[in-house]
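User: I've been trying to design a sequence by hand for this structure and keep getting stuck. Would you show me what you'd pick, starting by listing the structure so we're on the same page?

Assistant: Good idea, let's start from the same input. This is the structure you sent:
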């Protein structure tokens, strides 16, 4: 009969495996080939966890340690977070995955008592948010109150707001606390963070990237839009946050590599149709439009166009 062993990896529950001796007549040699009791060597710097990706209200996906329990997609769970206990929904079911940092834990599935407590906290969040908006309007503060979020299970509330300027908000904070009788903190965020918290639909028709899978914001420049041949119209290259589209970064490396293999507009080139000058390039289709010396315009595959040597 095969020998049953436990394979324990750092940060993960034990997994029962079966090690079958390869040479029955030599048990010592077979023992050397069997799986070790522990595996500590990890060349990638990652650790194997039994984890599930959980989404909280107006938040990105966050990996959580499941321990020995399996969770399916759509289940409501109670999780540990850096801000205390929170309720979320499992979006990616529990599975074995490699993570760079130890994730926080899923404590349990949501019970009827948890659901009632969550509903009560959501009502308190909405109340704090409405009071903050009314107080900002009374004080004539140039702020956009994004949302109020409960911390530490409702022990404190954070009011997120967006503003283009830094203003004294002490009177505003006092007004919110005096009206709600809650511990309240105000926190200024950028317009991209505001869009992430609110959510919405982008010009592509899909839910905002920042509200779904982006873990951080990569700097985006107008040069990226130029390299991709996009119309430099603010309404065309900006998201609902008013900043440049985050998705301009996705194909930037492809366009940069493609342009290195193609001539630049204005270059003198030789084509199968004769010599001429490059008018424009299409990186996606890898084609070059050339104004030939004969006066004609023609398009050629980039591999058939070579730069003309200047003597």
């Amino acid at each position: 009969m095969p020998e049953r062993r436990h394979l324990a990896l750092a940060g993960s529950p034990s997994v029962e495996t079966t090690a079958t001796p390869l040479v029955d007549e030599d048990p010592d040699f077979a023992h050397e080939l069997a799986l070790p009791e522990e595996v500590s060597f990890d060349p990638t710097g990652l650790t194997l966890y039994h984890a599930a990706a959980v989404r909280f209200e107006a938040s990105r996906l966050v990996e959580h340690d499941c321990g020995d329990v399996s969770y399916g997609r759509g289940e409501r769970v109670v999780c540990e977070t850096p801000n205390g206990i929170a309720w979320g929904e499992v979006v990616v079911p529990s599975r074995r995955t490699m993570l760079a940092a130890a994730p926080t834990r899923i404590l349990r599935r949501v019970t009827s008592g948890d659901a009632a407590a969550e509903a009560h906290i959501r009502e308190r969040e909405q109340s704090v948010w409405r009071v903050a908006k009314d107080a900002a309007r009374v004080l004539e503060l140039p702020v956009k109150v994004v949302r109020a979020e409960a911390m530490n299970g409702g022990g404190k509330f954070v009011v997120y707001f967006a503003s283009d300027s830094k203003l004294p908000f002490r009177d505003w904070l006092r007004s919110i606390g005096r009206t709600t009788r809650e511990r309240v903190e105000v926190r200024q965020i950028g317009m991209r963070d505001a869009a992430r918290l609110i959510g919405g639909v982008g010009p592509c028709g899909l839910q905002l990237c920042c509200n779904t899978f982006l873990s951080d914001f990569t700097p985006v420049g107008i040069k990226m839009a130029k390299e991709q041949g996009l119309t430099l119209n603010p309404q065309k290259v900006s998201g609902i946050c008013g900043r440049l589209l985050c998705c301009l970064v996705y194909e930037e490396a492809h366009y940069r590599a493609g342009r290195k293999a193609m001539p630049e507009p204005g270059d003198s080139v030789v084509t199968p149709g004769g010599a001429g000058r490059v008018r424009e390039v299409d990186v996606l289709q890898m084609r070059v439009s050339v104004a030939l010396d004969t006066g004609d315009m023609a398009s050629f595959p980039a591999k058939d166009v070579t730069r003309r040597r200047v003597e």
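That's my pick for every position. To get oriented when you compare it with your attempt: The longest strand covers residues 84-99. The chain has five domains: 3-39, 47-110, 114-189, 194-252, 261-307.
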